[in-house]
Structure formats: C-alpha cells, structure tokens
C-alpha cells in the first residue's frame, strides 16, 4: 500500500505536493469515490482517477541514455526531429527525460516514468552536481575562469559558484577544452556562462550526473539504472547534493 499522492506523482501526473492539492480539491477518485483527505493509501488493485481520467500505474523504470547531438530532449517534436524516446522503441512503458540537454549538446541524460523521482531530482533545492566538458572558441584566461567559478550574471540572476578546470588549449586553432561542474539546471546555462566571458561553445557534452557516468556506452545507447543507483540518487537529492 502506498499513499495516494505518491501514486499520482509516480504516474507523472503532477509533483507530490501538486497531487496533494488535487486531492484536497476533490479532483481524485479511488474506486469511483471522491477522496478529499490526505493520508489515504491505495494498493495495486485500486482504481485511481484524476479529473475523471484513470491513471496508468506502471512499474517504475529508470534509464541512463548517452544522448547524441542533434536530438531533442522530449517525447515528441512538432518539427519532426528525432527525440530521446526514439531510442527506446521496444519499451512498452511511457518514459520521459529528467530535465533536458540542448539539441546540440550530447551526454548523460536520465529518463523514467516515475514522476515523484523526476521532480525530486529536478527540484532546484537539491544540488545534484553535473559535469560538462566544453570545447570553446578562444582560450579563457585565469581571470575569465575565475569569473565562471564565482558566478555569472545572467538575465534571470547570478549563477551559483562553479568548479572549473582548463583541460587543454590549442593555441594554433585558438580553442580550448574546459571542464565545468555545476548543480543548477537553467536553460542553456553552460553555453550562456561561456558566452558571458566571450568564449563561444563549439561542442558541449555532459559527462557525469552525480556519481553516474557514460562508461561503456556509445551515443544513442542506454542502460537501466540498478535499484542501488536509484536509491543512492534519492538519498543524494534529499541530502542536498552532499555525498
């Protein structure tokens, strides 16, 4: 038996807090009866409806995908472009990405059908570290790297401090490879941070997400997360990103 709001969140309908609001508003039915109290628990055989629509209660699944460049981090695209769920043709469950990577960014992306888990990892309060490697036009100076480390003023406000390392520099081509570690997830954040210091990002790859990496995978390949990895991610998020 599980709490009703958790079942609704896991189905991807809403976050757990929003699910609680739906229950209090009388928009949820269990076995045909409206439920307006929190704390109700339901089992696998109970029928749950939200706004008159039965929810699909699937076993939760968790995947790690090596997203290639030129793929949309979505379940569909109105322009007909390739989306990340196209790599899961044989999967009979409805999954969606946790967060997103830009169209031109490659690397590690998590997908699930567990809405509660996805909302937990995406909540800005939980500082999950993400490691990116960027090939940039221009060779950033120590002062520019320090700017990235201290935070960059973007349109929506200052970014949090980052960890930055210059991995290599090609002075003939005027390019550099830089590793940057952040725990935020703003739209095109890494690209915008580099643009702010005058370095255009030519290539960008997310190499790590918390303790997860792309070892053993090629672009377009994926693997299922182990129960232990899922448990660790939950614990890491709930501890505020501290291992």
Short description:
Helices cover 22% and strands 30% of the residues. With 243 residues, the protein is α+β, with helices and mostly antiparallel strands.
Core attributes:
Alpha-Beta Plaits, single chain, 23S rRNA pseudouridine(2605) synthase activity, elongated, 3 domains, 243 residues, PsdUridine_synth_RsuA/RluA, alpha+beta, S4_RNA-bd, RNA-binding, EC 5.4.99.-, Structural Genomics Hypothetical 15.5 Kd Protein In mrcA-pckA Intergenic Region, Chain A, nine-stranded mixed beta sheet, four-stranded antiparallel beta sheet, 17 strands
Q: How would the blueprint of this fold be written?
A:
Elements: E1 2-3, H1 4-10, H2 16-24, E2 28-30, E3 33-35, E4 41-42, E5 48-50, E6 53-54, E7 62-67, E8 96-97, E9 105-112, H3 115-122, E10 130-137, H4 142-150, E11 153-154, E12 157-158, E13 163-170, E14 175-182, H5 189-196, E15 200-209, E16 212-213, E17 222-224, H6 227-238
Parallel strand pairs: 9-15
Antiparallel strand pairs: 1-4, 2-3, 2-5, 5-6, 7-9, 7-17, 8-9, 10-14, 10-15, 11-12, 13-14, 15-16
Helix pairs in contact: 1-2
Mean pLDDT: 92
Largest sheet: 9 strands, mixed
Based on secondary structure, the structural category is: alpha+beta
Total domain modules: 3
Looking at the chains present, what oligomeric state does this protein adopt?
Answer: single chain
User: Given the C-alpha coordinates, what overall shape results?
Assistant: elongated
| SSE series | EHHEEEEEEEEHEHEEEEHEEEH
């Amino acid at each position: 038996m599980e709490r009703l709001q958790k079942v609704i969140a896991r189905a991807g309908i809403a976050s757990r807090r929003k699910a609680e609001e739906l229950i209090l508003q009388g928009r949820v039915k269990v076995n045909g009866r409206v439920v307006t109290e929190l704390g109700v628990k339901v089992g696998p055989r109970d029928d749950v409806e939200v706004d008159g629509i039965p929810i699909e209660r699937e076993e939760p699944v968790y995947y790690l995908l090596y997203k290639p460049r030129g793929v949309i981090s979505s379940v569909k695209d109105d322009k007909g472009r390739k989306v990340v769920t196209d790599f899961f043709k044989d999967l009979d469950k409805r999954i969606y990405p946790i967060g997103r990577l830009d169209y031109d960014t490659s690397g590690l992306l998590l997908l699930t059908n567990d809405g509660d888990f996805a909302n937990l990892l995406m909540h800005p309060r939980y500082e999950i570290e993400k490691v990116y490697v960027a090939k940039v036009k221009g060779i950033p100076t120590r002062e520019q790297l320090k700017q990235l480390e201290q935070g960059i003023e973007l349109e929506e406000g200052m970014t949090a401090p980052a960890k930055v390392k210059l991995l290599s520099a090609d002075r003939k081509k005027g390019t550099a490879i830089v590793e940057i570690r952040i725990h935020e997830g703003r739209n095109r954040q890494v690209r915008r941070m580099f643009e702010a210091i005058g370095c255009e990002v030519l290539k960008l790859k997310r190499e790590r997400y918390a303790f997860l990496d792309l070892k053993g995978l090629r672009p377009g390949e994926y693997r299922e997360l182990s129960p232990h990895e899922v448990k660790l991610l939950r614990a890491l998020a709930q501890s505020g990103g501290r291992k």
